[in-house]
Design a protein that fits this description.
- The structure is a single chain.
- The chain has six helices and three strands, in the order ααβααββαα.
- The protein is mainly α.
- It has a single domain, classed as Winged helix-like DNA-binding domain superfamily/Winged helix DNA-binding domain (Arc Repressor Mutant, subunit A).
- Strands 1-3-2 form a three-stranded antiparallel beta sheet.
- α3 crosses α4.
- The chain is globular, with a radius of gyration of 19 Å.
Length: 146
């Protein structure tokens, strides 16, 4: 049965969602070695990849209430994964940054995800893996333009 355009786009969305979910699960399995929730991990990733952030910016990036962000940061700070410091320009604004321990956790989870992807990609012939890789680069560049 041939699919029309909308069915194809819906199926692409479904496939991408499923792939992202499976990769995310691998990261969550790795997190079981730590007392970190998925929400806390998302917050840590933002400070790891985007650098120090204000509480307001973190709340906006994650789409959660500032009070929720504060609770997440407090627990992560208590456990040594994040630290708060005064802002450089405005001493009244706290900047949240990742610690070395927090960075180690992020790197550990990323390695787990990469190993999972390698395991999957190794099941394909090299030319197919190469096509998938280049197609994802193209898709990513188009998405970044939007």
């Amino acid at each position: 049965m041939k699919k029309n355009g909308d069915e194809i786009y819906a199926h692409v969305e479904e496939l991408l969602r499923m792939i992202c979910f499976k990769i995310r699960i691998q990261g969550r399995i790795a997190l079981k070695d730590y007392s970190i929730t998925p929400a806390q991990f998302d917050l840590m990733q933002r400070t790891y990849f985007d650098g120090p952030q204000t509480m307001t910016k973190l709340s906006q990036m994650l789409g959660i209430a500032k009070s929720t962000t504060t609770g997440l940061v407090m627990r992560l700070e208590r456990d040594g994964f994040l630290r708060r410091r005064q802002g450089d320009e405005d001493k009244r604004v706290a900047m949240v940054e990742i610690t070395e321990l927090g960075s180690e956790v992020i790197k550990f989870v990323i390695k787990r995800r990469v190993d999972y992807i390698k395991e999957i990609m190794d099941k394909f012939p090299l030319d197919t893996s190469d096509k998938i890789y280049h197609s994802l680069i193209e898709l990513s560049s188009v998405i970044e333009e939007k």
